[in-house]
Amino acid sequence: MLIPKEAKFVTEKLKKEGFEAYIVGGCVRDLLRKVEPEDWDVATNAKPEEIQKIFPKSFYENKFLTVTVQTGSRNKRLKEIEITTYRSEAKYTDKRHPDLIRFAKTIEKDLARRDFTINAIAVDISESREQRTKNKKRRNCSLFTVHCSLRFIDPFDGQKDLEKKIIRAVGNPADRFSEDALRMMRAVRFAATLNFEIEKKTTQAIKKNSPWLQTLSKERIRDEFLRIIMAERAADGVELLRKLNLLKYIVPELEEGYKITQNKHHIYDCYEHSLFSLKYAAEKNFNKYVRSAALFHDIAKPRVKRGEGLDATFYGHEIVGAKMTAQILNRLRFSRKDIEKIVKLVRYHLFYYNVDEVSEASVRRLVRNAGPENMEELLQVRMADRIGSGVPKAEPYKLRHLKYVIEKVSQDPISVKMLKIKGNEVMNILSTKAGPKIGQILDILLGYVLTDPKRNKKETLKKEIKKLGKLSEKELSSLAQKSRKEREQIEVKKDKMTKKKYWVT
């Protein structure tokens, strides 16, 4: 296997000082899966103060015996490596923080406190003489990696679980979740991210102890929930939260839609529709705002539903849904910026648009209400909504046409307002009153500027005004008319290009 020089440097230096040092945690799991690790962690029997003496460029600002070493690497993932002293943790009264952290004597004891078997594997790095010779020849590479012999310490058979694609708690699952209740959500996240299944006893322990989520801070729940909806299998992750009795302690409002039938426009119930919308958003790799809005856009339907069967109605669900979404996101301590954006996407997802039926004025109103900066994401939510409703096409002609109209109304119109000089300034320069002559001069100046934008400077325009002021009415009228025709041609060309961009006629 290839190990980054930064990770090997850290373990080698610790060993030279007489300490043990192992690569541990998620990076080992990812190495075994042949995936580049997001970060690198090292476990050692050296105490934090001893680690800091060995690595002067480091900092220690926590209660969990972890020192962060700054490597100076140009690789973002390797700029910092966390080194943690072997530890064993005592009772967790609050299901979040250990009452007491004790040093452990061996790597095996340290691995025993970890959450899942696939994360409880350690690696001892060593180089043979032949490997060391080959590696030295490559040391000129700025991000070079080294070929190493690796010895795995795997007391809980994490490698077997990796092969079987299983998430299994280390030891007694209830003990692990009692230590940190967030591990129940982490199990779901790993299942959704890695496409693994949660082992039976671990599943049973999560179902039984799901109320422990209530002891956690909303911020920690929010962060883990976001990681789940940002996973490739986001919809499967949310459904797993529901099956394991966890969703009711995170977003109970989503469960209100479970088995709530819709009308002739939908083939799925409210809850399924939300999941399929999220699934499409994840498949298209849309951002967190679109994924959140796709999941929450119809969250109010169960509360506003009137009637049953094909003609059931959900009037005002987008308005009530926006209010509910704001409450949910506030409860989960989302930032004000995130709340504002997601709420707008939910509030305006139900916009009406049919080609030749909706005016440009109404599209301008939609852009103004939802925010021009949110329009691309609003259309993505609409696409997710369509697929979630069971229709085969996410972006029909009318949605492409709407994109064209949105861009058209969002563009600054070509007008004399673009000029760096105003009509009253023209009057002052020519010592004349308002009249057709002023408008003609502005039209001519605009033509100059469209031909050469560099001419749109006040001093340059003043010189042109003085020249134009000497022309006859007939000459001015002819130049102004020519300028207006050129402007119309530019507008037509611009419109054709925008239509071509969205394949509309």
Notes on the structure:
The structure is a single chain. The protein is of the alpha+beta class and 505 residues long. The chain has helices spanning 5-16, 26-32, 48-54, 107-111, 129-136, 158-164, 173-179, 182-194, 200-209, 218-229, 234-243, 252-255, 270-283, 288-296, 301-304, 317-331, 336-347, 360-370, 375-388, 397-410, 423-430, 436-451, 458-468, 473-501; strands spanning 2-4, 21-24, 41-44, 58-59, 66-70, 80-85, 87-89, 101-103, 122-126, 145-147, 149-153, 166-167, 197-198. Helices cover 51% and strands 9% of the residues. A hairpin with a 6-residue loop joins β4 (58-59) and β5. The protein is extended and about 100 Å long. It starts with a strand and ends with a helix. Residues 139-144 have low confidence and may be disordered.
